[in-house]
Amino acid sequence: MAQAPGERPWGKLLIAAILVALIAAFVGVVILDSRQGVSAGPPDGTEELEVGQAGQHTEQNVDYEQNPPAGGDHNPVWQNCGVYEEPIRNETAVHSLEHGAVWITYRPDLPEQQVNRLQDLAQGEPYALLSPMEGLPSSVVASAWGEQLQVDEASDERLEQFVSAFQQGPQTPEPGAACSGGVGEPV
Fold first, then answer.
1. Rounded mean pLDDT, 18-42
2. Pair 53, 140 in one domain
């Protein structure tokens, strides 16, 4: 094919190179995204719990099967997500779990350095609760609706993976529902 006057052969090559670069970038993003999806799954040690149906409201205290609870009947008002230095009410926290929050509880005698690490983990998360709780089965317990992970150290990498997997995760009965405008004043 004859070259038209004034047409430069590198123009077609440049367009072809741009198309190849765009396709390569798209493939790279797809591969990276699929790898992140694998790592965001439930961490080893996560226990799936039977917690009953969502949406059952009560203003009464509830006797939960788990400590901390990971679902079930709950208060009509949810707990505002955030960091708390004092224990919070189970029934309001469970309502937040229904909305897709992850609730990280820790024993009150947990060393300050570990509490600070948990605060750093929860602070920037829009659907996370952090509070101390008496009588836990391990030093730190992370709970989502029907899911729970017990660990001995705040530095356990599985905590971040749990938050990533279950905050607004597939187990959430009411995804996208509010985690603010309820009760409690986080620090």
1. 62
2. yes
Q: Are residues 53 and 35 in the same domain?
A: no
* Contact call for residues 172 and 70 (beta carbons, < 8 A): no
Total tally of structural domains belonging to the chain: 2
pLDDT at 16 over 80: no
Query: What is the CATH number for 107?
Result: 3.40.30
Q: Are 182 and 92 in contact (CB under 8 A)?
A: yes
Considering only CA atoms, which of 38, 61, 35, 64 is closest in space to residue 50?
A: 64
Note down the domain range covering 118.
Answer: 47-166
Q: Considering the domain boundaries, does residue 1 fall inside one?
A: no
Alpha-carbon distance 175 to 8, whole Å? 55
Give every CB contact of residue 179 below 8 A, 6+ residues apart in sequence. Answer: 78, 80, 81, 96, 99, 100, 101, 126, 127
pLDDT digits (tens, 9 = 90+) for 124-141: 899 999 999 999 999 999
Q: Is residue 152 part of a domain?
A: yes
Query: CB atoms < 10 A from the CB of 72, how many?
Result: 25
What pTM was computed for the model?
A: 0.79
- 32 and 54 both lie in a single domain: no
